[in-house]
Structure formats: structure tokens, C-alpha cells
Amino acid sequence: MSLEFRHIAHAYGPVRALEDITLAAPAGEITCLLGASGCGKSTLLGLAAGLLRVQQGEIWLDGAPLADPRRNPPPEARPVGLVFQDGALFPHMSVAANIAFGLPKARRGEVEGWLAQVGLAGLGDRYPHELSGGQQQRAALARAMAPGPRVLLMDEPFASVDIVLRRALRRECRSLLRAAGATVVLVTHDPAEALDIGDRIAVMERGRIVQFGTPQELHEAPASAAVGAIFSGAQIIAARRVDEGLESAFGTWPLASLAGPLPAAEALDLLVEAERIALAPAQGDAGCRVRDLHPLGRRTRVVLEGAGGAMITVETAGQIDPAARYQPLPEAASLRAFARD
């Protein structure tokens, strides 16, 4: 069973926010919607929550219809819990009262148990403004989970928490969410967060899902150079297939540099990892000029300028002469190639 979006499309006036989205978020797993601002991920979450009316397509839950253009139950009539970026706790109510808000009277004795589960034991009498940002998000999570929703929808839930606490908080939340067994859909723009917490990730661009799979699948078999760059941290270098190999603004690289198949297209995008490039000294005015050096402990980040002003970043443990010129050479089987759109 799962939360399913079937051929969902949505527009804000003349602006198309979603185009033919079909996606199944499996029960008991955490599905992340990943993409830049404006890609449609929060719109999709709003449709599932009932905050937006379905214009086209259908939403199904556990094999039964939940919403479509003729039927749009409000959020309170759906078996759905919501967690927002700022927690959205009621400021005039104590933490315990916030958690108890969605529970029937007969179950309000469960509040202390939820406080303990999210690491807030003994803090039930405090008010939201008396908690840290991380504690507020824990309280918001407990409030959303306490009624036992079949689906938990989370919109950038860790964005307002500092980065060090964010890592710990999302791992704690992952353990809680997996133990609860609910279907979870989490919106994020942070690839590291999606990898850290998600069982499956839907990568969205301009209102469409460009790839959906496990973190391992997205890392090992990206559908495009853009998806590959998100998950590997690699840079995208334009190249052209020639008889001698792969011609780019940084020289001609051998075909042995490729880790996978070479597309039939002439125009290519290459995924190049900064730490898998060697630097060879170039003679005279040949090669690339050093544009920036930045120490990274035992390694140095080097930005080189190639033909036409193109830039490539290299990380090396060797000594770099900022006045010298260099030829970047990828390691064998280190590049992925994609036909350029």
C-alpha cells in the first residue's frame, strides 16, 4: 500500500507548476521530494494535504481514492499529519497541550510517552518560545505523529535549525518515523538531507519528476548529468566526441577515462569529480591558467581556466605554482558521459 499520485497536473493561473506527475510513495518508507525552489515539490505536498484542490489527476491512499477534481476533503478529514518548516506550534499552548491537541480525551495520557520518544521528557509544561529550534521541531513531530496518521507530510522540516543540530535531528527523526511505520513524504532542497533521511528520492525539475529511486540507484545510475551532479558532487563539463577521444575546453581526454558507455551523440556532458583529476605541468602558453587556490587541510582546491574562459575545479595533494600552467587529466574510468540536451 502507498500514497499514490496519478497523472497530477496543477497551475497557478498561466503558470504550470506540475506536469503529469505519477508517483507512489511506499508505505512504511520515507520518500523525499528533492528539487530547487519553484520545481513544484511543495505544491505536490499541498495537494496531498488538502491545502490545495486537485485540478487534474487523482490521489490514492492504500488502494482507495483520496482526492480528485470532484472530491477534495479538507486536511482535518484526511488521515494525514503535517510538519512545516517552522513547526507551527500554537504559541499560547504548552508543549504538552500542543501534542494533546489532536488526540481524543481518552488518549491524552499518551502525551508523556510522546515527550519521552522525542527527547522532551520533563518539558511538557514549557511554551514553544521557551524551547530551542530543534526542540520545537521535535514537539511538532510528536504532535503530528501522536494521532497515528497513515501519512506524514513534512515540508522542509529542518531548514530553520542550524546545520550541526540538523544532521543529528534528521537522523533521530528517521529512526522515529521508520519505527512508526507511516508513509512519509518529505520535501527538501538539500541533496545531503535527502540522502541522509530518504529511502527513496524523487528528483523534480520544472514541475516534473526526472528520476525516482533509492539513494544508491540515483548515485550509481543517474538518468542525466544534472541528477548525477546532485548526488556525486561532480561538475558538468561540456565535451565533444572526436576520433582521438573527448574534446573539451581543457584538452582532449582519452576514452579510457570513461567509467561507463559512450553515448552515440557528438555533443556530451561529462561528470567530472574534482578529486579524480591529476594535474600535469603544461609547456609555455599551453594548458590552463590557475585562477584560484584554496587550502583544504591536506588537499588544495584549484580552479583552472581553460579555452573560452571555461572553469574546472581540481582537488590535489600536490604543490601548485599559481604562476604555472597545468593540463587536467582525469583518472582512468572516472568520467560519466551523457548526451547533451
3D structure, described in words:
By secondary structure, this protein is of the alpha+beta class. The longest helix is centred in the middle third of the chain and has 18 residues, at 163-180. It has a six-stranded mixed sheet with strand order 6-7-8-3-9-10, sandwiched between helices. Strands 13-12-11-14-20 form a five-stranded antiparallel sheet, with helices on one face. A five-stranded antiparallel sheet has the order 15-19-16-17-18, with no helix packed on it. It has two domains: 2-79 and 149-227, Rossmann fold, CATH 3.40.50.300; 235-339, OB fold (Dihydrolipoamide Acetyltransferase, E2P), CATH 2.40.50.140. It has helices at residues 41-49, 95-100, 111-117, 133-145, 163-180, 191-197, 215-220, 225-232, and strands at residues 2-12, 15-26, 30-34, 56-61, 64-67, 80-83, 151-155, 183-188, 200-205, 208-213, 235-242, 245-248, 251-253, 267-272, 277-281, 288-296, 299-305, 311-316, 325-330, 336-339. Helix 4 (133-145) packs parallel to helix 5 (163-180). The protein is built from eight helices and 20 strands.
Record the SSE blueprint.
Blueprint (H helix, E strand, L loop, with lengths): L1 E11 L2 E12 L3 E5 L6 H9 L6 E6 L2 E4 L12 E4 L11 H6 L10 H7 L15 H13 L5 E5 L7 H18 L2 E6 L2 H7 L2 E6 L2 E6 L1 H6 L4 H8 L2 E8 L2 E4 L2 E3 L13 E6 L4 E5 L6 E9 L2 E7 L5 E6 L8 E6 L5 E4 L2
Parallel strand pairs: 3-8, 3-9, 6-7, 7-8
Antiparallel strand pairs: 1-2, 1-4, 4-5, 9-10, 11-12, 11-14, 12-13, 14-20, 15-19, 16-17, 16-19, 17-18
